[in-house]
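<context>
A single protein, sequence plus fold
<sample>
Here is the protein in question:
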Amino acid sequence: MSEEQPEHSEKDNKPQRSWIERLGQALQGELKDRDQLVTMLNEAHKNGIIDHEAHSMIDGALQVAEMQVRDIMIPRSQMIVLEMDSAEDELLATVVVSAHSRFPVVGDSKDEIVGILLAKDLLPHLTNSEDKKLNLRDVLRPAVFIPESKRLNVLLNEFRSTRNHIAIVVDEYGGVAGMVTIEDVLEQIVGEIEDEHDFDDDAFIFEHSDDLATVKAVTPVENFNEHFNTAFGDDDFDTIGGIVMNAFGHLPKRGEVVEIESLAFKVLRASNRRIDLLEVARKKNKFKRKATESADAEDN
């Protein structure tokens, strides 16, 4: 019986060695097409030779070779940009609240990309004891423009070789269609990459302190009332964005402030059709002063 045991073990190990041998042949270019490789990878996953995470990453890497920038880009309407003529405190507020590390800087419109601002390039200015006025052009990096049709694997190689992390996507007419980052490409391979600054998709309110919070404009009025202990009615508007829009009496631009009851609302992000993101401060916060100044200016 003991003499037969080694033969039994070799037989059990043979399928695994056979698959590994076939994978080695695949890596040496003996596969005729991508479908054969996918079939082998699926078989390896099914047999437990590679785990789910490894299988997903390999599959993602294969898909990246076939995908184009237009498939994953952040659309123009969702881009968080900085405006060249914005006040310094507005620039800093957008950088801090969004928590991104790179921002396209625009001129008169989103089609006029002046350059890219790296948040870290603002640090010397913030720590400068001389407190000189910030000249945004002095700290801008050149913007890289790419077509919507560029393959993701090609873009990833370009990101690596140039050490660039962001690119502006343009359409066939030269207009800005969106933007893409190296993180967007890598997420196609390794899955969602989250950090401590991400604002969860299913969250409406993010508290910075007892007096300051970032609030999505689509937050239901009921949720907002519960969080801030307010009593806004929801008969006319379903979301806090609707109430704020009504208080302004017009579609506000980024940086505009309005005071409603015990709260001051500052627009952090807005498109030409709606408000997207708000900063909400309780009255004892510094935004009370700004809201009062804004109201006085309107009266004059």
Remarks:
- The chain is about 40% helix and 20% strand.
